[in-house]
Amino acid sequence: MKIHFEIVKPDEASSLRFLYQNQPIHEFVWEYHYHPEYELVCVISGGGTRHVGSHISMYEDGDLVLIGSNVPHSGFGLNARDPHEEIVIQIRPEVMQQWISDFPEMQTIATLVERSKHGIKFNGAVKEEVKDILIKMKEMSPFERTINFLQVLHIMGDSKDYQILNEKAIIADLVDKHRSRLQKIFTYVEHYYHEEIEIETVAELVSISVPSFCNYFKKTTHITFTEFVNRYRIQKACLFLQQDKTIAQVCFECGFNNVTYFNKIFKKIINKTPSDFRRGK
Description:
- Residues 183-280 form the HTH araC/xylS-type domain.
- This is Transcriptional regulator.
- By secondary structure, the protein is an alpha+beta fold.
- Helices cover 46% and strands 17% of the residues.
- It has 2 domains: 4-164, Jelly Rolls (Sandwich); 178-279, Arc Repressor Mutant, subunit A (Orthogonal Bundle).
- It contains 12 helices and 10 strands.
């Protein structure tokens, strides 16, 4: 499980990169990655897993999320259902910062950009209003897209109907600085999530003591190592629950040794029981 650094190039004659994607889920790339560009993701309809920073949750009936510069995240096709249709807009941080610094009218957007370090999910009417604008942007020129993107940012910045995804802002420099060490940890969990994972073993893997490892992981990711392992296992469980497996089988195949505890952790992270998730409730 690597943390990929993604190189983003704006569209020709544009400050933005505008992506419209409508393809089968098996063709979707959802690796955990980051990039300096701010990113707005609008899933037109359907459901899947939202993984932004250390926050993992399910979305249904579409999604609208603003992700800050260098905040790690997965593609929103993770655990999604066909058909999956989304619009993604990415913009370089220097462009965004120049807008904010040069125009006093951008104060609302400046506040929005500051919040985006946590990852922001928008709900209700604002989600529908922005989605309608983004769909129309598919047919616009680069100039029209830029003007409408500013309008979208203003609408979101003015809205009170949002949810902060990560309690603490993601410190992008920390993630970048420790990327190699984090990749070792993440890859180990990816390979052994179905077995018992000892913190001592992982601490030894990255050549630090157990207390130092616990402090380091919490400082870098804002969650404990145990929380990370549980979230990764539940992410896998979401995938397995869409297969022909019993809940007990999924529980044990994901590294849990107690069905009651598995149900408790699943409900805490996904906000629904494994049975409800399987039934699409």
